[in-house]
Amino acid sequence: MPEIVTPPTLTRFIGCDVGKATIVVFDSRDGRVRTIANTPEALAAFAASLDAACLVVCEATGGYEDALLAALLVAGIPAHRADARKVKAFIRSFGTLGKNDALDARALARYAEERHARLPRWQAPDPQRERLQTLVLTRADLIAQRTACTNRLKAPGAEPVRPYLEALRACLVGQIQALEAAIAELMAAADDLVRAEKTLRAIPGIGATTAAALIALMPELGHIDRRQAAALAGVAPHPNQSGAADAYRRTRGGRPEVKRTLFLAAMPPVASIPASGTPTSASARPERSPSSLSPPSCGASSSSQTRACATPSPKNDRSPRTELMTGEDRSAASATSTSPRHRPLQLRKHPRLGALADVESQIIPRALAQ
How far apart are the first and last CA of the chain? Predict the structure, then answer.
């Protein structure tokens, strides 16, 4: 019978404020602050001096924390890479106004001590997905530079620099094409990436480029539910309620690059909905209707959940939003629908924009989580 190993109780919490050249370390055991070099040798020696009863917490600092996390992983020391926004809110909750590396390291150690039971431990990323993420992000950067170069070519007074800008733009176009070829080669070389791409491309509106971006920027897909996926992508409508007032629920937070990608993916399913609100014929719709990806019935949900997913009930015909639902979902939504005041004015006036908001916040995240 295999022996059951119980993880040691955490009694020591270490906060690391990571910089490019050095790392400021605070140890809760002795309350001391020290500085170590951010080099593989110094980090390996630091990790070897720790025991399994400690937890190391650092913030994401643009990749400068990777060497520290790798050294801790090799030494078998549990670690957590914290969200800088959460840590900042944690520090503000104590009324701390000052900021320096020592204070940040001390705050990270306290953050670990108070929340260690709920903090996920750092795990080594998949090398292929990590490489894919680098390629995808670099392609996005070059596309932004190409757009800026194109805009400068169209601007007044660009004639003196036109030859240079055109040469720069041609170079950017060539590098973007090379990156796209490298992304396609990488996606075809790994079986797990091929399966993930096949699943994503079954969703209307998602092609090879969007699928690669979602796989690279949301590696959590397949391990989280649709609500978590929507929140992580920045398309979840968060409640804004106080007392009797229940204001419009806005989308915020999440990963902005994923939200931009989902916006483009949501356009084709909405394109079949005319601005007049009259549903198009069956022949004009995609082969796979977005209704197969609609959110589940809202009839059994709580009142707060109902406000987030219910659709307005029109007097005569079905609204474009209900065209994106199954029959069961449509009847449940009409029975529990709330006032359209929860949607902004421009979405209430324009059916396509309203349907786009639904596809972004409900349909696509649910399909991605399957």
Answer: 36
